[in-house]
Design a protein that fits this description.
The chain has 259 residues and is mainly α. The chain folds into two domains: 104 residues, Nucleotidyltransferase, domain 5; 114 residues, no CATH class. The strands form two sheets. A three-stranded antiparallel β-sheet has the order 3-4-5. Helix 1 packs parallel to helix 4. 10% of the residues are buried.
């Protein structure tokens, strides 16, 4: 099993070269078809620590520094090479064979760590049920918007403020205040934020890193996955307006009576 909460392909592609360094001594050449790993290696340690899966990248950098960077070379090989790739020298028979062996070992490891079939079936059943619930909630929310839509009124157009005469002007929130508010919201979700290189934030708990301009996307992910008892963002309840809540309860009650 790969270290960490999430078991994903990118984490596996970073976990594999880490195991190579931990199990070898002296000079080593790592051949990988992972663009994620190869690009991160040539960008340098600082760029790696600011990217996704920074926990595995940090471990790899620590082991690489102990082994000596001069003893490590990384080569990008072509994955799933074809005959024409060998003819055009885009790949070699040795790289093709090594890539096939790596894929075979990865498949064997996935089968050994696979969950029992009854667990897989149960997860699929819960996933399908969750999608049904989400679709029903979305339908109800759309109906609530129709019910709560205010009547059109004859509203006079607003006159622009007279700047020269010192008229009222709209106050704008500074970018620093916006970032402070977003950081407060992230901390309320369980994240422990630290500033990395001045332009990036990283959570000390889940090790996720985002640029400050991407905090809104980060907030949409919900609670910090490193906090015990956290739930996926798609299953978290959303707050509604008071009038929408009343209509939502009414529609839910009607639906229960009909079923």
């Amino acid at each position: 099993m790969i270290a960490g909460v999430y078991q994903t392909v990118p984490r596996a592609e970073l976990w594999a070269p880490l195991q190579v360094l931990e199990r070898t001594e002296g000079a080593v050449t790592i051949c990988s078809d992972s663009k994620l790993f190869v690009d991160g290696w040539f960008k340098g340690e600082e760029a790696c620590l600011l990217s996704d899966n920074a926990d595995l990248r940090e471990q790899f950098c620590d082991v690489a520094n102990e082994s000596g960077l001069a003893n490590i070379s990384v080569i990008k090989v072509l994955g799933y090479a074809k005959a024409e790739d060998l003819v055009s020298s885009l790949s070699t028979p040795l790289d093709l064979y090594g890539n096939a062996v790596a894929d075979s070992l990865a498949l064997r490891g996935a089968k050994q760590a696979a969950h029992p079939q009854h667990v897989v079936d149960r997860i699929k059943q819960v996933d399908q049920l969750a999608w049904k619930v989400q679709r029903r909630l979305l339908t109800i929310a759309l109906e609530c918007v129709k019910v709560d839509r205010p009547l059109e009124r004859n509203v006079k157009p607003r006159q622009p403020a007279n700047i020269q005469s010192g008229g009222p002007q709209r106050s704008k929130q500074t970018s620093q205040q916006k970032q402070l508010n977003r950081r407060t919201l992230l901390e309320e979700q369980g994240h422990v934020i630290e500033v990395v290189r001045g332009c990036k934030w990283r959570c000390r708990v889940c090790r996720q890193a985002r640029a400050q301009c991407q905090t809104l996307e980060w907030l949409k992910l919900g609670r910090c996955p490193g906090v015990p008892g956290s739930m996926p963002a798609t299953l978290q309840s959303e707050q509604q307006e008071p009038s929408l809540s009343r209509a939502l309860r009414t529609l839910l009650g009607t639906w229960i009576l009909r079923t």
